[in-house]
């Protein structure tokens, strides 16, 4: 028996579950092995005999069954509040992200302008004291800006990835139904 | 024609979405579509049409309750099968069902001409043989042989590893060879 295809694999071949290398090996072996071909035929015979067994008979009518189920249904199964809140939050997440990023950029731009005016001494003493910024704090704010932009980018990419995954799943589901 | 079919299939996703929003008529349409499939899966596992219908009703009631959590990652049909097999297994466990192999009406191999009665007898013996299998193997066999689910789909539906699906299916087939030996000789 050691030279033949294992039971599990010959059944997998019969059920169209083998692919690539294993499939080729099985086909090659079956082409020259009568014992395994007989085993395959036995599987086919068993499957054929199983198909002879009819499904449930003498069932109640479709309409009756549907109405009986309908009578047993309780209140509408609306989505739980937390799930709806999460879904809405997920949908508006990119808008919030862009809004936050735009707001932060405006603040950085404005503070940069104030710092530049103060540094150049254009606005006189009032602006210089109002700015109250040193070169090191300006560097820090630039670093903060870069970090915030990078973080925003990461969040945006993550959201896009999750959106793409859920979209692919939806399409996969549709194609499964379509091909059924 | 194909376009019409595709439209109908797309309808299913719309029906599911509407039912998730609580639309009873949409759910009723889904019940109408999957009633027979669900009843047959349960029937082949328990071998009693009346009880299969009851379990199928329970399945749809449970599906209605759980529908808001359903995500279309797996086909809706398989999701229903999952609920149905879980309910069936719970019922079997509750009853500790046993079937004596000796009572199995094995088909005789001596008759050369096959009448309708003989065919019916053979169909009954097949159903009885299936009922002799352990419930876990029975579910796997039914989903594979009668519903045509792939190993992975069965694994997802029953919540077991793919390797377990293969071993249970293999066991079920071996056991059926023994139980249906006479019928198989005729084929």
Task: Report on the architecture of this protein.
The complex is a heterodimer of chains A (180) and B (187). Chain A has 180 residues and is mainly α. Chain A is built from 7 helices and no strands. Helices cover 79% and strands 0% of the residues of chain A. The relative contact order of chain B is 0.11. With 187 residues, chain B is an all-alpha fold. Chain B is built from 9 helices and no strands. Chain B is globular and about 55 Å long. At the A-B interface, helix 1, helix 3, helix 4 and helix 7 of A face helix 1, helix 2, helix 3, helix 5 and helix 6 of B.
Counting H and I runs of at least 4 residues, what is the number of helices of chain A?
A: 7
Determine the N-to-C terminus distance of chain B: 38 Å
Number of helices of chain B: 9
Helix fraction of chain A, binned, reads over 70%
The total count of strands of chain B amounts to 0
How large is the share of residues in beta strands of chain A? under 5%
Which pair has the most extensive contact? A-B, 48 and 63 residues
In which range does the helix fraction of chain B lie? over 70%
| Poorly predicted regions of chain B | 100-112
Q: What's the helix and strand layout?
A:
The complex is a heterodimer of chains A (180) and B (187).
Chain A: H1 7-14, H2 20-32, H3 34-51, H4 62-72, H5 81-120, H6 124-131, H7 135-179
Chain B: H1 2-20, H2 24-46, H3 49-66, H4 76-95, H5 116-132, H6 135-146, H7 151-158, H8 162-179, H9 181-186
Helix pairs in contact in B: 1-2, 2-3, 2-4, 3-4, 4-6, 4-7, 6-8, 7-8
Q: What attributes does this structure have?
A:
heterodimer; A: 180 residues; mainly alpha; 0% strand; B: 187 residues; 9 helices
Sum this structure up briefly:
Chain A is mainly α. Chain A has helices at residues 7-14, 20-32, 34-51, 62-72, 81-120, 124-131, 135-179.
């Amino acid at each position: 028996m050691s030279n033949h295809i294992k039971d599990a694999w010959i059944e997998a071949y019969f059920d169209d579950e083998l692919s690539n290398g294993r499939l080729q090996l099985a086909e090659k072996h079956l082409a020259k092995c009568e014992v395994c071909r007989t085993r395959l035929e036995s599987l086919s015979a068993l499957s054929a005999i199983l198909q002879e067994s009819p499904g449930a008979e003498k069932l109640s009518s479709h309409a009756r069954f549907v109405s009986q189920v309908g009578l047993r249904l309780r209140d509408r199964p609306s989505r739980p509040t937390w799930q709806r809140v999460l879904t809405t939050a997920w949908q508006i997440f990119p808008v919030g992200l862009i809004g936050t990023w735009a707001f932060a950029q405006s603040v950085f731009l404005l503070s940069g302008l104030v710092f530049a005016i103060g540094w150049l001494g254009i606005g006189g003493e009032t602006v210089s004291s109002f700015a109250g910024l040193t070169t090191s704090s300006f560097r820090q704010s630039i670093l903060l800006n870069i970090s915030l932009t990078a973080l925003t980018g990461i969040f945006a990419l993550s959201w896009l990835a999750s959106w793409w995954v859920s979209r692919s799943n939806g399409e996969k589901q549709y194609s499964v139904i379509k091909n059924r | 024609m194909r376009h019409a079919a595709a439209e109908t299939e797309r309808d299913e996703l719309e029906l599911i979405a509407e039912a998730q929003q609580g639309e009873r008529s949409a759910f009723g349409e889904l019940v109408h579509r999957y009633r027979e499939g669900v009843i047959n899966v349960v029937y082949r596992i328990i071998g009693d049409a009346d009880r299969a219908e009851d379990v199928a009703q329970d399945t749809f009631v449970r599906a209605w309750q759980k529908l808001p959590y359903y995500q279309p990652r797996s086909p809706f049909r398989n999701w229903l099968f999952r609920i149905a097999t879980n309910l069936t297994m719970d019922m079997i466990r509750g009853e500790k069902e046993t079937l004596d192999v000796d009572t199995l009406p094995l088909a005789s191999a001596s008759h050369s001409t096959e009448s309708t009665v003989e065919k019916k007898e053979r169909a009954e013996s097949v159903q009885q043989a299936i009922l002799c299998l352990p419930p876990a193997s029975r579910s796997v066999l039914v989903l594979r042989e009668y519903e045509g689910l792939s190993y992975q789909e069965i694994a997802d539906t029953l919540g077991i590893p793919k390797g377990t699906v293969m071993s249970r299916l293999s066991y079920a087939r071996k056991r059926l060879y023994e139980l249906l030996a006479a019928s198989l000789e005729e084929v």
